[in-house]
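Support request, please re-run this one:
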Amino acid sequence: MPQPTVESASFEPSGAITDVADDSAIYPNPTAPELSVVIAGNKDDRAGGVGVLDMQGKLLQFRRDGKIGNVDLRSGFPLAGRSIVLVGANNRTTDTLIFWELDPATRQLSEPIGEPIATTAPNYGLCAYHSEKSGKFYVFVTQETGSSNLEQYELSERAGLVTATKVRSFAVGSITEGCVADDEL
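Re-run finished. Output below.
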């Protein structure tokens, strides 16, 4: 059986009892591939957060921002007159959406950029979408229990902060965590 060529570091600096890092997103830096990163959530109940790792698996940053679930990102989000790399996730501690800006040069995440946005509870999964047709940005959030709703939020900017407006919700018929949206199709 083939063995991995690279393995990521643990989120040990988080103080987590268990290393529950998963649900990651990769930022492929288009102008400096050596600065590409993996951003992963840590769902530890006491010391959860989000980590940034280089492509060799070295932990570059860890932010203790709650029990962070699925992470996704999109480049080109308009914020305060700039085009940024927007990183989003579902925060299972508070059943909210949380967003950061990734600085491609320093490979660091900002403080959260916006107030927490309440979602279906308990939230479980998340994926991002950028419509090439309309230019709008969205996230989808899944629910862990009950009727397993999926909610879609349109993202926008107000006063330099990320905001979200729920545009629809529907039942998917079973518990769904992972999701992916195809921006092109």
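The chain has no helices and 13 strands. Residues 89 and 98 are 6 Å apart (CA to CA).
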